[in-house]
């Protein structure tokens, strides 16, 4: 059953042939694919593809031709393009979500922890509290410069503690 009875082309039915398309088939040199694109009044854009029929001497005496409506091809290309863009948008959104999560986990959260450690250490030192281990307990294990900064701040905290202990001993001796 033909999906569109108005577009049915019965065997032997034809529209007037344009000279350009006819000459393309009649003067074909036997190399490459044999096809022609043309616009018809009834069927719109068609791709006519054909193969020659040859006699026993190899001379072409007829062609077997088939027409393919380009409307279906154009519609399929349009649907593919829409689906492609939808998939690309979804992939882009998923990649953006992944990268956002990764940046938050690898950069933002460790920097917030370091900032809090510095603020707490400063507040404790100014308040006379001797709590230690602000940077040892941050849990930063990023394997990059942020972790190295955490280790440097931990060393700085330890150096400050040792310096304060020495200063405290000196004050006790005097």
Short description:
It contains 3 helices and 3 strands, in the order H-E-E-E-H-H. It is α+β, with helices and mostly antiparallel strands.
Describe how the helices and strands are arranged:
Elements: H1 19-26, E1 35-40, E2 44-54, E3 60-69, H2 70-127, H3 145-173
Helix pairs in contact: 2-3
Task: Characterise the protein shown here.
A 3-stranded antiparallel sheet has the order 1-2-3. The protein has 3 helices and 3 strands; from the N terminus they run H-E-E-E-H-H. The mean pLDDT is 83. The chain is of the alpha+beta class. Helix 2 packs parallel to helix 3 (145-173).
What does the radius of gyration come to? Answer: 40 Å
Anisotropy-based shape: rod-shaped
The assigned structural class equals alpha+beta
Helical residues, percent: 40-55%
Q: Main beta sheet: strand number and arrangement?
A: 3 strands, antiparallel
Number of strands: 3
Mean pLDDT, all residues? 83
Strand content: 15-25%
User: Would you identify the regions where 5 or more consecutive residues have pLDDT less than 50?
Assistant: none
Euclidean distance between termini CA atoms = 110 Å
Order of helices and strands: HEEEHH
Give the helix tally.
Answer: 3
Strands of the largest sheet, in order across it? 1-2-3
Features:
single chain, 174 residues, alpha+beta, 3-stranded antiparallel beta sheet, 3 helices, 55% helix, rod-shaped
């Amino acid at each position: 059953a033909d999906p569109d009875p108005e577009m049915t082309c019965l065997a032997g039915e034809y529209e007037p042939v344009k000279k350009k398309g006819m000459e393309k088939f009649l003067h074909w040199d036997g190399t490459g694919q044999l096809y022609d694109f043309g616009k018809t009044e009834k069927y719109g854009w068609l791709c006519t593809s054909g193969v020659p029929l040859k006699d026993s001497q190899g001379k072409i005496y007829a062609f077997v031709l088939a027409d393919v409506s380009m409307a279906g091809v154009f519609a399929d290309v349009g649907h593919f393009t829409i689906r492609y863009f939808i998939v690309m948008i979804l992939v882009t959104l998923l990649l953006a979500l992944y990268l956002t999560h990764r940046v938050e986990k690898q950069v933002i959260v460790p920097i917030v922890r370091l900032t809090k450690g510095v603020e707490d250490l400063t507040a404790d030192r100014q308040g006379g509290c001797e709590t230690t281990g602000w940077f040892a307990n941050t849990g930063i294990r990023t394997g990059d410069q942020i972790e190295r900064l955490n280790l440097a701040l931990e060393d700085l905290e330890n150096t400050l503690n040792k310096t304060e202990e020495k200063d405290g001993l000196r004050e006790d001796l005097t």
